[in-house]
Amino acid sequence: MSPPVSASRTMPIRLSRSIGLLPVAVLIVAVLAVISIAIGVYSLDWRSVLSGDGVDHSTMVLIESRVPRTIAVILAGATLAIAGLIMQLLVRNRFVEPSLAGTTESATLGLLAVAIFAPGIPIFAKMLVASCFALMGTFVFLAILRQIPLRSPLMVPLIGIMLGGIISSVTTFFAYRYDLLQSLSAWTTGDFSSMLRGRYELLWLAGGLALLAYIASDRFTVAGMGEEFTTNLGLNYRLVMISGMAIVAMVTAVDVVTVGAIPFLGLVVPNLVRLVMGDNARMSIPWIAVSGAGFVLLCDIVGRTIRYPFEIPISVMVGVIGSAIFLVLLLWRAPRVG
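Predicted structure:
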């Protein structure tokens, strides 16, 4: 009978296997990206594109539309998935993400406030205002959680849904009063059809924030074990919480400003990855980034081909598939989540 293998020995084995399989996952995402670039109403002439003889219409479509859209899909999918993981660690609940904690709705309220009081400010300033509103909404959510006894882990997403519903109601009321319902619909419906060169570059900021989250991933993992444990290890628990929630708020605001809201993405992808990789954020974040990008790419491809040449918004595709996975996670994981 062989002796039991300790956790310290199994961890390097799991890490080496994950590192070895990660290039395969990246290759799959790259294949999906090529498929995404090739799909469209206009048929690209690949011979003229590859020949490089001048800039024809196919090359212009490729550079101005197809490639920026695909990059936007990859960045949005990766960053929102990572933001969901950070929120789950800091709230210490697997059933939360920005769209289930009032963060996305608060960012939308911030955009509405900008549209009413300062519609002419630059898009970067709009993102900062939306980030502030998202951060305030997230801290309101955390304050409510501290005041309510949580006898079940399912109470946390329910509270977030109710808070988001209240914020959405206020936003809809003022959007109706100021005749901004059409703009509100654009912010709350994720859509990549308008992604062109010059309109998606703000997402690179979200990518930088995701990289910052990876650098500080060990601190977020420790903070997910509780305030007392974090303090005993010599970390400032409140500083880690504020920095983590600030990253979540800014990533959410960038994505809402650029492509609109995409529900359930930050919920299902981190949960599926953590089922295999565990709760170590440093090990999970690369896989979550790749899986989030691949998931959104796949949903985008299906949404563009299922009713070709028409297109189903990405928020609808991710919402349908993500809600189904969310229900499976609730039924399977809820009895065992503490």
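Summary: Residues 1-13 have pLDDT under 50 and may be disordered.
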